[in-house]
Amino acid sequence: MRIVLTLFLTHALLFGAIRHFSIHEMDGKEAGNKLFIIGGIHGDEPGGYFAPALVVQHYTIKKGSLLVVPNLNFDSIVQNRRGIYGDMNRKFDHIDQSDPDFELVTHIKSLITDPSVDFIINLHDGRGFYRTTWESAIFNPRAWGQAYIIDQKTIDDVKFGNLDEVTTLMVEALNQSNLAANHHQFDVKNTYTKDKDEQMRMSLTYYAITHLKPALAIETSKNITELDTKVLYQLLSMEALLNHMGIEFERDFELTLEEVDRLLANYGTMNLNNRFSISLSDARNALHFIPMRKEGNVFEFSHPLGTTIDRGSYHQVMIGNIPVAKLYPQYFSLTCNAKTAKIEVDGHVQTVSFGETVHIKNTFNVLKDEAFRVNLIGFVTKDRDSQDGITVQKSDFISRFSIDRSETAFRAEFYDNGDFCGTITVVFE
Ligand SMILES: [Zn+2]
């Protein structure tokens, strides 16, 4: 499995978006064509950002390259809104320097026009189901869902510039695949942007093609409510294009609805200030007295869509638009420089770094160390300042103090002179 750690600092810029997108470069051993995958330009279209998040985590490129930005409009993703600073996909012909999206749009434009990029896809969930003739308010030519959107048929004399042929191949591949319902069939929608669509002239794909970069939008339908289904279609579409471009890849899962569903439920891990880690998939909704700084905390996530929202009294941990856990802080200066502690795990002494997790079969014992005061959260002892030198088993903990809903993971916290040094998470198997 491929895990890319991405760092997010949560200090707000004066006039800009708070969160910058992450960039993931995935190069094969053998040189070849390069596809640029852009997700999350619209924050309320989760199919468009969870699909590239799975690409980053679970694909390996053998030949050719991918450049992946899964979370272009990250501030809007965490709010589950189309665009909290306005529609970002209408800012590519002109954007004021005072626009909060200015830095993001300028940066993504420079990546789009990079000479190494051969093709760009922009991922969306669109309204309704696109049909060439009017069938109903949901199935009609004005809908966007289940379609590959091109601005014109071809870009002459450019490799992969035959956008109509490329998308026709993608339609054939998708409609021959195992669609969850017959009405989920795909089609090509040409907006004839140059002559007919003033709005689309401000879009990302039109910016790309006017800079002679082949580009299209993949739109799954907002009317499909199951996230796994939309993500499956996004991945199938992307793979059809990879095959056409001769980009060779492997993935560590089978491309079925069940497998996509399983992977989407995995939120990965979060590390706080290098002193405390937590597995997020099974985390409790609210975690109290989490030691951290008042400001300048560093949250690191294994999931590309992981971030936090500062709500004042707590930090809301998010995976994309999904609220995962609330961290209620207890403030410390965090000047303690100690990095490790010794723990006897099932009879074997180990040196464990703060922020690490140890797995316990039966018992553990934090060895006595004058440097620390030890607090095992949820383990009650009387008349003791430090809970070290005690052999502890799972039944010694009050289960509601676990950090996970399965009630197997507990915190061993280490303090020095009233300052917090770090947490070792103990998980009973
Ligand atoms: Zn969209």
First and last CA, distance = 23 Å
Q: Per CATH, which architecture of the largest domain? A: 3-Layer(aba) Sandwich
CATH topology of the largest domain: Aminopeptidase
Number of strands: 26
Domains (count):
3
Relevant CATH superfamily of the largest domain: Zn peptidases
Give the names of the bound compounds.
zinc ion
In which range does the helix fraction lie?
Answer: 10-25%
What is the overall number of helices? 8
Query: What radius of gyration results from the CA coordinates?
Result: 25 Å
Q: What global shape is seen?
A: elongated
Summarize model confidence as the mean pLDDT.
Answer: 95
Q: Major sheet: size, sense and barrel closure?
A: 8 strands, mixed
Write down the CATH class of the largest domain: Alpha Beta
Strand coverage percent: 25-35%
Uncertain stretches of 5 or more adjacent residues: 1-13
Q: Helix- and strand-based class?
A: alpha/beta
How would you describe this protein?
This protein has 429 residues and is an alpha/beta fold. It has three domains: 6-264, Zn peptidases (Aminopeptidase), CATH 3.40.630; 269-331, no CATH class; 340-428, no CATH class. It is 19% helix and 33% strand. The chain has eight helices and 26 strands. Strands 2, 3, 4, 5, 8, 9, 10 and 11 form an eight-stranded mixed sheet that branches. A four-stranded antiparallel sheet has the order 1-15-12-13, with no helix packed on it. A hairpin with a 4-residue loop joins β16 and β17 (315-319). α1 (47-58) packs across α7 (227-245), α4 packs across α7 and α7 crosses α8. The chain is elongated, with a radius of gyration of 25 Å. The chain binds zinc ion. Zinc ion binds next to loops.
